Amino acid sequence: MKFTTRQPPPVSIQLAPMIDILLLLLCFFIISWQYSKSETELKVAVPTAQEGAEPNDRQRGEIIINVLADGVIRVEGLAVDRPQLLEKLSAIAKQYKNQPVRIRGDGGVAYQRIVEVIDTCQKAGIWNISFATQRPEPAK
Questions:
Q1: pTM
Q2: H or E stretch covering 104
């Protein structure tokens, strides 16, 4: 008795949908990476510290408040004054109880301006505040 085995027809893999999905994922990651980097690319010379944090040590959902050398406060690329900052932070603090905030103050800005930003954060109900620093460059 002779048994015949039938081979199933070869399956073809569709590459076009897979390439489309990969390109969309690539675009998504590139755009989201650029958005997160734009918050820290302002011309703010943060103070140096021996135990300075790496710029990539960000908490998820962290709000970055930039205080420029001339005392201007910038959040999400927009210049704001203290009442606008209080309004923005209060709305966020109502939704997220432990909202992290990082203050990137220029090394040349008056300390009073940084204290005003901290005071505004506390009035808004935000207590999870950190400060951006950088490590000093090694001597050559």
A1: 0.65
A2: strand 100-105
Does 46 reside within a domain?
no
How many CA atoms are closer than 13 Å to the CA of 3, on its beta-carbon side?
Answer: 2
Under 8 Å between Cβ of 105 and 131 = yes
Exposed / middle / buried, residue 106 (Cβ in 10 Å: 0-12, 13-18, 19+): buried
| Full domain range(s) for residue 119 | 63-131
pLDDT (tens digit per residue) in 42-88 = 677 777 777 765 555 666 778 889 998 888 999 888 899 999 999 99
Q: How many domains does the chain have?
A: 1
Residue 124 per-residue DSSP state = T
